[in-house]
Amino acid sequence: MLRRKMLDKLITWKRKANGREALLVEGARRVGKSTIVEEFGRTQYRSYILIDFARLPRDVRELFENQRDDLDTFFLMLSTYYRTRLVRRESLIIFDEVQQYPPARELIKYLVADGRYDYVETGSLISIKRNVTNIVIPSEERRLSMEPLDFEEFCWAMGEELLADAIRGAFDTFIPLPDVLHKRAMRLWREYMLVGGMPQAVAAYVNHRDFGEADDIKRGILRLYSDDIGKFAGGDAGRVRGIFAQIPGQLSKHEKRFTLASVSTDARMREYDSAFFWLEDARLVNICRNSTDPTVGLGLYADNASFKCYMADTGLLVSQTFADRETTPDDVYRDILFDKLAINEGMFSENAVAQQFRANGRALYFFSRNNREDAARTMKIDFLIVRDYDNAAMKPRISPIEVKSTKRYGTSSLDKFRALYGGKRLGKEYVIHPRQLEADGERIRVPLYMAHCL
């Protein structure tokens, strides 16, 4: 089984919550929610029961419908049906794919108040209207998002735990890795971009080192997502499919902001709001919004009409880019692996960095301004994040970030941004690139494989 950071988060939740709340683990389909939650139950409790609401047996459904007011009978029958002895304060009950049966989610309030056992729910499309209609969302429910594997988890899967530790150590101390380890880490990063972080694809690649096999799995996941859009997106299904199909084309442009004209020449944002919400709620995309005033509290100045739309997993982006072909050509994988790709590799690098930030729980923001009258005020910053700043008593400051996929590049936007907003607003600025770690005053250049450290 793949080692996931989510297990540590679940263990921390168990210790802190101590039965006072349930946990809802959200994430895209096939991201590994059920697997890690079941592992949590198996290793951290004396017993656990997993109720799969995607395949809810009639007897269990009747139990939820008829015994919800008699919890003694409810637990007795549940324990008997699943042939599992429940132990007070030492057992876990898992509601898997809880969005398929919203009344179970509503029952959480009373189960937590009863206090006998711990409860973890898993689900996707949790906020879609059909999944919350006519139920009261329990206040005793804490939410936790689960993303595809980040690069560090990919290193663990590949048996490179020591290299992963060395990468973190180098970032913390600002001491570059030796060249031989830098080259090894960069090769792993390229493998990660190609394979992505969907557990099934990673496991196949770890076992066979075959990009073609991983590509087949990724294409199967993309077909599953397409089916889900048809089943669950309702009247927005056509718009959702149109957006999803256009993501590679949008990211391949120099200005990566999503333009609706690429979907339909007469498209209006108000008509597509619910389609973007569906994609974001399904965790299929990561929306990065333009923050027009770069100060701490980036969301306060987010322009919801100006955004970039990344795919939630970069491996899926690679396969989606060549969706018009039956398989992704082998030479594409080879060229990316050996840094010889003719198409815009920058979109894969930027998407992968966005994926690392989301795995760290960061909301995504960028900065873009076009001033035809004053070139000094025209600039584009790939990402804005908030980090504690050591030269300001560790107070939070804005850190602008540029992502570079090649070793030769310019930084004019960063220079303009510092000149315009320096002083009390900004902290360190980062260039994430393929080269070695290098500190130059307030500008830190970090290798792409250190993006997850930010």
Automatic annotation (TrEMBL):
Listed Pfam families: AAA_14 (PF13173), DUF4143 (PF13635)
Ranges of residues in domain AAA: 20-155
Domain DUF4143: 227-405
Domain of life: Bacteria
Coiled coil: none
Protein name according to UniProt: ATPase
Lineage, highest ranks first: Bacteria, Bacillati, Actinomycetota, Actinomycetes, Bifidobacteriales
